[in-house]
Design goal:
Elements: H1 3-20, E1 31-37, H2 55-61, E2 65-67, E3 70-71, H3 76-85, H4 103-106, H5 122-128, E4 132-138, E5 156-160, E6 182-184, E7 187-188, H6 197-210, E8 218-223, H7 235-239, H8 249-263, H9 286-319, E9 326-332, H10 347-355, H11 375-382, H12 395-398, E10 402-405, E11 414-416, E12 420-421, H13 425-432, E13 441-442, E14 445-446, H14 456-459, E15 472-477, E16 480-485, E17 488-492, E18 502-506, H15 522-538, H16 550-563, H17 567-586
Helix pairs in contact: 6-9, 8-11
Length: 587
């Protein structure tokens, strides 16, 4: 054999060897559909104990794995930042929603409320690995041109950049915004006249997926507006539940707890507490009961409508031959939202809504032009059988559904009560797609390391947990804080609902957080408090001001940003207008 033939043979062997050890081909790498509901409570879908009809999500649960001990941040933006990067919220630039960060914190680089360039999104990683990357929905991680998802790894996007917006029209839902900020592929855009958020976002996702006919796999991120305020739904969905909630929030909370036990979601002998913010249903007038029942019916209709449109996406993937190679991940960004109070028809509430061009009369509740919330009492039921809700570090604020399903990973229903955390989603997707995580640098920039752990082995029943009894996960948001270790959790919830003190719970046996173990296990309490202190120091967690109130801060920051130096004039004018309105109503 001459030298040329020997070199040719060696090159051929090397080529075959390199192909044999290369990453999987595009045709074998799964598509990923990451679906995120907004403010969906722990028991708001049927497979987790709800009375709401969610057949599309139930079908995913029936062929995949349902996680019953999965935790997020208790507010939207910090969850989204951790979900998309695998990096702790105090290191990725989003320790709280930007609207709620006090001025004394905003001078710190990690407290801007905007996703840091030193945190790489899963979209950027997958895009570099050959994936088409799409996003349709709420972003809330920055609205400047270079902060939008189109600049953070997503090749096609339709994005609502704010905390929320109307679901029927391009309209801001609270007065801190001058307009609803929607963007298409990084440019300001206008919504269609027949817009309804859940339908529109699925339509755009299907459009993006169909826009590419090559063999490259896709990653589609669909962060719905449902069921963030304003809670709105097509009338035909609301009508399905118009008589469902007439017995009130106490009965609903108990019904969901019972179903959760029957399904094995929580231990059969676990207890449930009554929240101090839950009002007495029986003390209400018949008219008020009727109105509150419809508030919740609209909420159920909004969940139902979201599920219906998820079903449309699944049906489309089946019809186009993509379903068998697609993995679905479904979750919520935090627990149920208690905004709105239990007196939404007060004179002050209706006056405020009127200034924004909204109404909340019974007949049109949930339709275009109406503004609806469910308030703290029904929010407690939506989080059943857990305690607390959005913003608080109780289980009702942090523990939400998580379903991972699809033929590439599962073909039978399973449940896992292993502790899992929102930072685990990015490393899970990386392993599912055979994508190598960046180490120290990405795109020539030093980056924050991923701290989450892949759930793939847990999903395939190769292990029964990914965190050991000695591992700790710290958390803080707006002064509410927690640390998880094995079956235990220490938690501090500030007022007005919490007492501002640290408590210790076994959240495996007692997910309702009814038995404070801090006096029974003082050594455990001390060890976990020391671990939290270390977490706070290592992640530059700042103490909130003593008088900090997240809701008030949103109003102050938002009005300052919108009206600048004219804010005092605006507030004075509002007070004068309201005084005239009160006088007119009295006459």
């Amino acid at each position: 054999m001459n030298a040329f033939k020997r070199k040719l043979l060696a090159a051929s062997v090397l080529l075959v060897f390199s192909y044999a050890n290369a990453a999987p081909s595009n045709s074998t790498r799964p598509n990923i559909v990451l679906i995120l509901a907004d403010d969906l409570g722990f028991s708001d879908i049927a497979s987790y104990g709800s009375e709401i009809q969610t057949p599309s999500l139930d079908a995913l649960a029936a062929s995949g794995i349902s996680f019953t001990n999965y935790h997020t941040a208790a507010s939207c933006a910090p969850t989204r930042a951790m979900l998309l990067t695998g990096v702790d919220s105090h290191r990725n630039g989003v320790p709280n929603i930007p609207e709620s960060i006090p001025p004394e914190h905003q001078v710190h680089e990690n407290y801007r409320g905007v996703l840091s360039r030193n945190a790489v999104t899963i979209a950027s990683m997958l895009q570099s690995a050959g994936y088409h990357t799409y996003m349709a929905g709420k972003w809330h991680l920055g609205k400047a041109r270079d902060e939008l998802p189109y600049r953070r790894g997503f090749s096609r996007t339709i994005t609502m950049a704010d905390t929320g917006a109307d679901n029927w029209e391009q309209k801001p839902y609270i007065p801190i915004y001058k307009k609803a900020n929607w963007f298409a592929d990084g440019e300001e855009t206008t919504l269609p006249s027949d817009f309804y958020s859940s339908e529109f976002l699925v339509d755009k996702t299907i459009e993006f997926i169909d826009s590419n006919s090559d063999s490259q796999p896709f990653f589609a991120y669909i962060p719905f507006q449902a069921v963030h305020i304003p809670v709105q739904a097509p009338k035909e969905f609301t009508e399905k539940y118009i008589k469902t909630y007439t017995q009130g929030w106490h009965v609903l909370r108990e019904q969901r707890q019972k179903r959760s036990k029957e399904l094995g979601i929580i231990p059969a002998d676990s207890d449930m507490m009554t929240m101090s913010s839950t009002n007495d249903w029986d003390s209400l007038s018949d008219e008020d009961k009727r109105f509150h029942a419809k508030r919740m019916a609209v909420y159920a209709g909004m969940v139902d409508a979201m599920d219906r449109h998820i079903g449309r996406l699944i049906a489309h993937l089946k019809a186009t031959g993509r379903y068998d190679n697609t993995i679905f991940i479904f979750s919520s960004d935090n627990g149920s939202e208690a905004t709105g109070g239990d007196k939404p028809r007060s004179l002050l509430s209706r006056f405020g809504l009127g200034l924004q061009g909204y109404r909340n009369d019974y007949e049109t509740l949930g339709t275009k032009g109406s503004f609806n919330t469910i308030g703290p009492s029904f929010a407690s039921a939506a989080a059943s059988p857990l305690a607390y809700y959005k913003f608080y570090a109780g289980e009702g604020g942090m523990r939400v559904p998580l379903i991972i399903a699809g033929k590439p990973i599962s073909d039978k229903p399973r449940r896992s009560n292993a502790f899992t955390y929102v930072t685990d989603i990015t490393p899970t997707i990386l392993e599912l797609t055979s994508t190598t995580a960046p180490s120290e640098f990405f795109g020539g920039r030093r980056i924050e390391p991923i701290v989450g752990r892949s759930l793939v082995a847990l999903s395939r029943e190769q292990v029964d947990h990914v965190y050991g009894d000695s591992d700790t996960i710290g958390y803080e948001l707006g002064g509410n804080a927690a640390l998880f270790q094995g079956a235990y959790k220490i938690v501090k919830n500030r007022g007005p609902v919490g007492d501002g003190q640290w408590h210790l719970y076994n959240i495996v046996k007692d997910p309702g957080e009814t038995k404070n173990l801090s006096n029974d296990m003082p050594e455990k309490m001390a060890t976990m408090l020391e671990a939290y202190k270390q977490y706070a120091e290592e992640n530059n967690v700042l103490e909130v001001p003593a008088n900090f109130n997240g809701t008030h801060q949103v109003a102050i920051n938002g009005l300052r940003d919108r009206f600048g130096k004219h804010i005092l004039v605006f507030l004075l004018a509002s007070i004068i207008c309201f005084s005239f309105y009160i006088s007119y109503r009295r006459k």
